[in-house]
Design goal:
two-stranded antiparallel ribbon; nine-stranded mixed beta sheet; 12 helices; 11 strands; about 350 residues; alpha/beta
Amino acid sequence: MHAAVSPRRLAASLTGLGCLLLPAIVSIPQANAANAANATRSPETAGSSASSVSAASGSMAAAPYEYLGWGNPQKPTDVMAATGVKWFTLAFVLSDGGCNPKWDGSRPLTGGSDESAIKSIRGAGGDVVVSVGGWSGNKLGEKCSSVSALVGAYQKVISAYHLKALDIDIEDTEFSNATVRQRVVSALKIVKADNPGLVTYVTMGTTSAGPDANGKDLIKKGAAAGLANDGWTIMPFDLGSHSGSMGSVTVSALEGLKAAVKSAYGYSDDAAYRHIGVSSMNGKTDESDETVTTGDFQTILGYARQHHLARFTFWAVNRDRQCSSGGDAGESCSGVGQSQYAFTKIVAQYGG
């Protein structure tokens, strides 16, 4: 993943900007319990953890990103009614400048519009994965100077919503710093121990052949720390260069991710597949030679079903609609001809 600023990765600075680059993608929860012997917990197990929130009826493995602070976001309950999707990955929780989590680094976790949106999703029979990080803004992994402090910040987010799943979208300076990478995986290991049944996803950029050196190191650090991460997720877009369709290049990148996870953890092929995920992007990306079509999403869906991937998600629901005449792809449309929610409807078909 190269350093182009993409809307998906932007955080606090996105809202109100009129000329944004396109978003980056993140990761999806594991919904199949067949890998219990490999010391990870499936979403079904996560749903049984002590919580005041009842289990949602849809699949955690299909939780598309929605950024409620960016791009004229749709009402989540309207999306649910139109597509059948039950879960959302809500972006992004950031640092407020210190080791304290807030939405976009500025909005409080509770008492505001974000909590209201989560309550509405749950009231309609759904649930949420909260995504921490993204490309821009202050990162908790950097602003929290110790593992214990980062654990405390993550726990505030989990406790605020009695979460069943947490996504760490690790990008930019948080991703490139080896000390911070270690801090993140060490904190996640403790958080999982402190919250039995919690599903964790780690989302990162990728090359067309799979994770780059930093990504492979992150996975190795996770394995060495004893982190039973449920889904290592890649964002196969903004690749810099590629050949073939975006569906085929996504499969190639996922095969590289599977190999990295298998090597680090000593998994079988089947177990490795069940611990990886994909966070794609719909329509035109930040690269002029990249367009992800609904046909590409069908290719990814088939691959995910074949191998029982931990998650299939994309960036973002905000963009899952056709641009007005003459409009360009951006924060609130895909840049391709499509019916409304065409990409979300494909993701909603995935059950783990």
